[in-house]
Amino acid sequence: MWRDAALIAGKDLRIEARSRVATNQVAPFAIIVLVLFGFALEPDRSFLQTAAPGLFWVAVLFCSLLAVQRSFAVEAADAAGDGLRMSGLDPAGIFLGKAAAVALELAALEALLTIGIVVFYSTALTGAALLLATAAVATIGLAACGTLYGVLAAGLRVRETLLPLLILPVVAPVLIGATRAWEVALGQSLDDGWKWVTLLAVFAVVYVTLGVLAFGTLLEEA
Amino acid sequence: MAPAVRLRSAVALLGGFPVLAGADLEVQMGEVVLLQGANGAGKTSLLRTCAGLLAVVSGSAVVLGCDLTLDRRAVRRRVGLLGHATALYDDLTVEDNVRFAVRAAGAPSAAVEPALIRLGLGGRLRSVGASRLSAGQRRRTALAVLVARQPELWLLDEPHAGLDAEHRDLLDDLIRDAVAGGAAVLMASHELDRASALAHRTVTMAGGQVLPARPAPRSGLPTPATDPPGAAAHQPAGISPPHDGFEVLEVAHVA
Q1: Alpha helix (H) residue ranges in chain B
Q2: Which A residues in the span 48-87 are in contact with B, Cβ-Cβ below 8 Å?
């Protein structure tokens, strides 16, 4: 399973490196979202600083949709997914590999978005441990959940429009938990940030487990 | 020797529609069987069923000893399918595509280079992205995957489509080599002259079923003694039918 996961993750990351969709399209999209939030909300920097955690994670959610759609679009083109099924790879390995590739892409985008909120919103980064722990578990949860719903929608002709409808409501706990934890880390709240990290970790474990167990069946139906 | 493919009253559905409606077919190891029939007759569906990509909801289907009604995944690594699509990743190079497919299938990486060279992809083309290939070059890349994987059952859907004359001949050689190595080949084609020259027998499909065999051999050559019931008796040049577990390649007849 782990060998298959490494093979799939390597393949997906190589495709992204060659196509440069993540660097030339998704990353600029993420920055544009941050900038537009700045335009739409008050030019008052203090409000943007307060809203920065929420805006950051909304931008991450949008980027995760693009990453997941891209992950399954490459399998739909020229029936590459049939080749994947014919390879006899462990479906759990395929799930873990695709989720890992999405997670790594999201991690890179989050690094970029972090620079973005520092530059555009003048956010002062504090509580590095909580920030990083939150980002890690939230990213894993988003990637696992997105990959699971991605394969669910993969076989449908309306997958591009259906995927956001499926994913966005389900990842609401990630948006809430990650935003609250980052508010604590950035000194905007006196709440216990680590309890939100625990919630995010539970979300990630649930969706990784569901993915490992159900991905094979969903892939056959795709 | 157990047959490579044994379908009995196999029914497969696609979107609720029975694309296979009680198909019966038997293919022996070392045998080349040509599927012919009109568009929509069920040829592609039969190939996809044998590949384990379509579920058999009724009847029985055993491919390479694997019961597809119980487990469709087990057979896939032992089967190679060349469909209408080439299953290549546009953003990977020719070599990356072949290497990934071979590693994913658990085949030895050492088989990649000879396969690329055999298909004429060993030079500059190996580093070209699949999105920049012509239809014929994509087809050859997909064939390189098959050659490198060395499946026990080759499922070919219009395999000559998109290939130039030189590579059509090469494909014919690949099929002969595969059969000489003991593999079975099930091939759907509308190019009957070329495909039937490769096949031990031809079966006709219509309405998702394999039609009963024609009574007389078309070419006048002897009917293979081991032909299963229902086999049409077409025995052209190139490859002798399997006899008692042995396959004989009649090299003298190969152009």
Answers
A1: 43-50, 94-104, 112-118, 135-149, 165-180, 192-198
A2: 74, 77-87
B151: left (phi over 0), alpha (psi -120 to 50) or beta: beta
**Is residue B18 predicted with pLDDT exceeding 90?**
no
Q: What is the ipTM of this complex?
A: 0.81
Choose the mutation target among B47, B64, B66, B73 for the interface with A, i.e. most A CBs under 10 Å: B73
Contacts of B72 in chain A (CB under 8 A): 220
pLDDT higher than threshold 60 for residue B239: no
pLDDT at B232 (0 to 100) = 39
Contacts of A73 in chain B (CB under 8 A): none
Using DSSP's 3-state secondary structure scheme, residue B96 falls into: helix
d(CA B165, CA B160): 9
d(CA B70, CA A9): 30
What is the count of residue pairs from A and B with beta carbons less than 8 Å apart? Answer: 73
**Looking at the partner chain, which of A4, A18, A87 has a beta carbon nearest the beta carbon of B101?**
A87
Evaluate if residue B235 carries a pLDDT over 80: no
One-letter amino acid at B37 equals G
Residue B19's identity, in one-letter code, is V
Query: Which residues of chain A are within 8 Å of residue B89 when distances are taken between CB atoms?
Result: 11, 15, 74, 77, 80
Mean pLDDT over residues A127-135, rounded?
92
Closest Cα partner for A35 from A113, A106, A105, A135? Answer: A113
Q: Is the pLDDT of residue B88 over 80?
A: yes
> Cα–Cα distance between A100 and B15 in angstroms, integer?
32
> Cα–Cα distance between B71 and B48 in angstroms, integer?
14
For residues B134 and B47, what is the distance between their CA atoms, to the nearest angstrom? 25
Across B222-239, average pLDDT: 40
pLDDT at A162 over 80: yes
Distance CA B161, CA B187 (A): 12
Query: Looking at chain B, how many residues does it have?
Result: 255
Are B100 and A7 an interchain contact pair (Cβ–Cβ within 8 Å)?
yes
Which residues have a Cβ under 8 Å from the Cβ of B189 and sit 6 or more positions away?
Answer: B34, B35, B36, B156, B158, B159, B160, B195
pLDDT, tens only, B26-43: 888 989 999 988 888 889
* A12 CA: distance to closest CA in chain B (Å): 10
